[in-house]
Amino acid sequence: MIRVLLVDDQPLIRSGFRALLDLEDDIEVVAEAGDGEAGLALAKEHLPDIALIDIQMPVVDGIEATRRIAADPALAGVRVVILTNYGLDEYVFDALRAGAAGFLVKDIVPDDLLHAVRVAARGDALLAPSITRKLIDRYVTQPLHTGTATGLKELTRREREAVVLVAQGLSNDQIADRMVISPMTAKTHVNRAMAKLHARDRAQLVVLAYESGLVTPRTP
User: Fold this and answer.
1) Is the per-residue pLDDT at 139 higher than 60?
2) pTM for the whole structure
């Protein structure tokens, strides 16, 4: 069962998402909140698998809520998916940087919402290739962090190959096919690379792959 926390200051958004999610046999909305501070308290109380969090909220906004969840060892199993009205804007970049696993636009169609929740629960990042391209444009010119450079040197050849494929938007199953290995081995390569690069999840691994120069953007 995928346990979901809804955090949004618009009651209609919360009720609409809850009605849709609660219809699914494998998804349960365990709590909902109207601001980031209440959402953080409920995250600690319920330990959901997924927290759907709006960016712009009173008291504590979605970016700060994401940052606090990512920094709390007790909430290590909570994957944050950001909700936004505006698509891939600067706020979303900041949220991904803070530790969000991906983002959704609020006018998403129902089937895509359900798919996204399940993808995030599996541990995959909600980053389509088009979004990855925009991440490249945003982060590839940023200075390389020392910790990233050190971790990059520790990657094995197969781990580096797996990171490149993650940065191209491939799932573990697709990486396994490309590398001619089992999905479990692909997952192991990805997880070890994340640990060495100190990436919280696949979204941050994508950012670090481009930031470090391990992957370079193609000319459009």
Assistant:
1) no
2) 0.69
User: Whose CA is closest to 55, among 100, 107, 20, 122?
Assistant: 100
Q: How far apart are CA 190 and CA 174, in angstroms?
A: 12
* SS3 state of residue 179: helix
93-102, 125-134, 201-210: range with lowest mean pLDDT: 125-134
**C-alpha–C-alpha distance, residues 152 and 192, integer Å:** 11
Distance from C-alpha of 133 to C-alpha of 147, rounded to nearest angstrom: 24
Percent of the chain whose predicted confidence (pLDDT) is above 70: 83
Strands 102-105 and 79-84: parallel
Task: Quote the pLDDT of residue 80.
Answer: 92
Strands of 98-181 (E only): list them: 102-105
Print the domain residue range for 151.
138-212
Domain presence at residue 152: yes
Rounded distance between C-alpha atoms, residue 40 and residue 183, angstroms: 34
Q: Of 182, 170, 192, 179, which is closest to residue 125 (Cα–Cα)?
A: 170
What is the sign, positive or negative, of the torsion defined by CA atoms of 89, 109, 100, 67? Answer: positive
Identity of the amino acid at 12: L
Place of tokens 């910790």: 147
Q: What CATH number is given to the structural domain containing 64?
A: 3.40.50.2300
Structure tokens at 204: 């941050």
